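FOLDING PROBLEM:
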Amino acid sequence: MEQAPMVLIGMFDSPFVRRVAVSLVLLGLPFEHRNWSVGRDFERIREFNPLGRVPTLVLPDGEVLLESAAILDFLDEQVGASRALLPAAGAGVGAGTARRDALRLMAIACGAAEKGVLQIYERVFRPEEKRHEPWVARCSGQMHGALAELERAAALRATSSPAGWLVGAAMTQADVTVACVVTFLREALGVDLQGEIYPTLTGHNRRCEALAAFQTIRADFSPP
């Protein structure tokens, strides 16, 4: 009897949902998608995730995985170290720091996305007269600080590696996560990524977004 596919809950305009979905496609793991919003479908999501958050991944046996980092770790485990998108520590010549480098870039990118989400929530959920502009400015500053560090790392890699990926000679989860976050911030907040402020990061984003997995997994941003 054929096993039912995994079910991914969440909208693709979320960088956290999207990085899971793109990873599923890149790894060749079949899944069904539930295009549910944390706004209008909150109670439906809570039937699987008590936090009402996305992404949520429902396994064929009914087990539910929460949070994109834990889900991505599970996906890598399913395909094995040789195909995993997050490098294994010490895998290959000169790759001793590859895992730490990838995790660092992923953490910075996710932090930028979280600060972007906070700015959106301030605008969408808080009445205009109660918005605290110094808080929004602080979040924006943190977001741009993270993007500047990603630009620095991408530019450094561009000069040292002909492959052009952020870590190692092949695409890793660092590339997937950074690309999903950059696209989200550009589309949701109008962050200037035309090549003037973050030129290397912009080029990396365009390269990733041109790939079939990214083209398949995308959606225009829709406020919660």
In short: The chain has a mean pLDDT of 91. The domain at 98-211 is CATH 1.20.1050.10 (Glutathione S-transferase Yfyf (Class Pi); Chain A, domain 2). The first strand starts at residue 6 and ends at 9.
